[in-house]
Amino acid sequence: YSPKAMIKTRNFWLYFVWCIMTSAIGMALLGQIATISGSVGMSDASCALMVSLFAVFNGVGRFVFGSFYDKKGRLLTMTIFGIFFTIGGLALLFGVKLANAVLVIVSLALFGIAYGGVTPTNANFARSFYGNKNYATNFSLVNFNLLVAVFLGQYVGSTLYMKSGGYLATAIALVVLSVLSLVIQFFITKPETK
């Protein structure tokens, strides 16, 4: 597929929206991990450790889900992402609501591993759905979702906190994005043939 042909396909736009949602989740958390951790009573040292925890699980997710996609395919890989994101969102919601540090730690681990897997999934999706010939350009177009995701993530992560005075609204928004990402990926069909 040429880039022009790729962006005319339904699957590209469904996947693009999925990427916006999952990337926004990661972006919303990236700048807020320490303050979310602090809001449930963690010490400054523990808050810094949570940032590292998220980074470690993000790295693990890149390797694990890149390999998993190769072996098990897109549908199962993206379904597991959706489940991880949703459970992570619920753990964060209840962690913030109950000021429970253990639930926040679980949520950051699940979010980190799932968010880490998005990038290799983008690469696999671009190649397996649209071929090798224009892979570099097509992959770049898939990653263009980050331009939208960074603004959505900033809104969910920071603006909701500022408007509500706490992270409960952020946690609810992350659950909504997680559930939507789980649902939308079921509408992506097998690669179209030209």
List its salient traits.
mainly alpha, 9 helices, 194 residues, 83% helix
Which residues sit in consecutive blocks of at least 5 with pLDDT less than 50?
none
Largest sheet: none
First and last CA, distance: 8 Å
Give the helices and strands as they follow along the chain: HHHHHHHHH
**What is the share of helical residues?**
over 70%
Strand content: under 5%
Total strands: the figure is 0
Counting H and I runs of at least 4 residues, what is the number of helices?
9
Mean pLDDT: 93
Helix and strand content put the structural class at mainly alpha
Give me the secondary-structure topology.
Blueprint: H1 3-6, H2 10-30, H3 33-39, H4 44-72, H5 74-98, H6 101-130, H7 135-143, H8 146-164, H9 168-184
Give a quick precis of the structure.
The protein has nine helices and no strands.
Summarize the structure in words.
There is one protein chain. The chain has about 190 residues and is mainly alpha-helical. It is built from 9 helices and no strands. The longest helix has 30 residues, at about 100-130. The mean pLDDT is about 95.
